């Protein structure tokens, strides 16, 4: 039975403690409310969690899960972390992750993993403050062994958590942080997407590999460059490739489509202001304009070239993704535009549909 003990308590009377057994359904309900419809399917009644409580109300939680690595080594996984929207911005997430990390160490874990959305700066900065680093799968394998890597991929949302980054903390050994260089991240983004889309050839041998990859690469590179040009501000931006959810980009090409690994331009500091939402949305709009013009030219001007037939086909798919501000498509640009201005978003949607239908 999960004990009910207080791990910490702050001046605002927010209690951080271990979840009681009879609170599992409440935690699940709060988690499903915090995430979109598809993401909420991953939230099941937890066996163990750290909760934030004010009065008698649970306002946040981190769900804990124990996995096994090489030679019985225990690996803790933060299956999900969330805070009631009305209570965000008060440092509650940081307290939850601190207490959850402490709990895993007390349970005898050697490593702890977590999956966090690239734009969820509140969560990943809280993790970094508690000793976590954004890592590659190679680093996870190096530290936890092959069995540890397989256990994380099989028993956590990592393989399906599209648009999220993998974070790792180790109790006794240093963790090698994933490279933050935008140049290296962009190179990895292009290379991995080109490799993964090749699975389309397994069911369609008539595809011309060279033109197919050249067209896809041109679309991805052009879109990310135009997005960066559109981010006109004094902020410093870094490109980040997310490494969770790789099974989706790997399997979708088998259906004859393409689904890129997600990469985004991330600012060093987010601002909860209308101006900043326009900055983020402006970059996404310019990336959309590049795709729109490329598809339009391929459809109505460059009509006799095999290369442009691939530009049109793949570009049309990416444009459709740009219209969907819901998970798992939200990180591809639509959510930034939707939050910026719904009229602009609606104009984008109408223009895209006219181009694809007419």
TrEMBL record:
Keyword Lyase tagged: no
Superkingdom to which the source organism belongs: Bacteria
Location of the N-acetyltransferase domain: 14-169
TM ranges: 186-203, 209-227, 239-258, 278-298, 310-328, 340-357
InterPro entries: GNAT_dom, YpeA/RimI_acetyltransf
Keyword terms, alphabetized: Acyltransferase, Membrane, Transferase, Transmembrane, Transmembrane helix
Pfam families: Acetyltransf_1
Entry keyword annotation includes Magnesium: no
PANTHER family: ACETYLTRANSFERASE, ACETYLTRANSFERASE YPEA
Protein name: GNAT family N-acetyltransferase
